[in-house]
Amino acid sequence: MRLRIVTPLSVVVDEDIDSLRAEDASGSFGIMSGHAPFLTALAVSIVSWRRNENERFCAVRGGVITVGGDVAIAIATREAVAGDDLATLDTDVLARYLSDADEERMDHVETVRLQLNAIRRMISRLRPGSNAGEFQ
């Protein structure tokens, strides 16, 4: 099988593998040779794979994984950091990704709050008798 992990700026991993483990919203799953075509959205997580007896890892910040009919595995993600040391990836990179995801959620909530406030103000000015056609 061929594994390819890409970000918008680079190809992080491009190598032959024997098996892969990843995680989506429903939990952890594995892919081995002969796997059926497959598509899912990845969680912020660590993807691991084996080649012979060696195991490697890559922290991914979400993304999409596709398994083609020829068992080519492609992962497209916003950010990825590959490495051989799971402890380093888990403590440093994954924690940073989760923190960034929380900040993005908070920013999104604030953006939606501002949009709703603007819509409320527009609606209040469009009500009959509110002098909608006049500038204030």
Write up this protein.
The chain is built from 1 helix and 8 strands, in the order E-E-E-E-E-E-E-E-H. The longest helix has 41 residues. A hairpin with a 4-residue loop joins strand 1 and strand 2. Strands 1, 2, 3, 4, 5, 6, 7 and 8 form an 8-stranded mixed beta sheet that branches. It has a single domain, classed as F0F1 ATP synthase delta/epsilon subunit, N-terminal (ATP Synthase, domain 1, Sandwich), CATH 2.60.15. Helix content is 30%, strand content 44%. It starts with a strand and ends in a 10-residue tail after the last helix. By secondary structure, the chain is of the alpha+beta class.
Short description:
The protein is of the alpha+beta class. It contains 1 helix and 8 strands. About 30% of the residues lie in helices and about 45% in strands.
- Total individual domains: 1
User: What is the string of helix and strand elements?
Assistant: EEEEEEEEH
**Strand-residue fraction?**
35-45%
Q: What's the total number of strands?
A: 8
Mean pLDDT rating: 86
Number of helices: 1
Layout of SSEs?
Layout: E1 2-6, E2 11-16, E3 19-24, E4 27-32, E5 38-51, E6 54-67, E7 72-76, E8 80-83, H1 86-126
Parallel strand pairs: 1-7
Antiparallel strand pairs: 1-2, 3-4, 3-5, 5-6, 6-7, 6-8
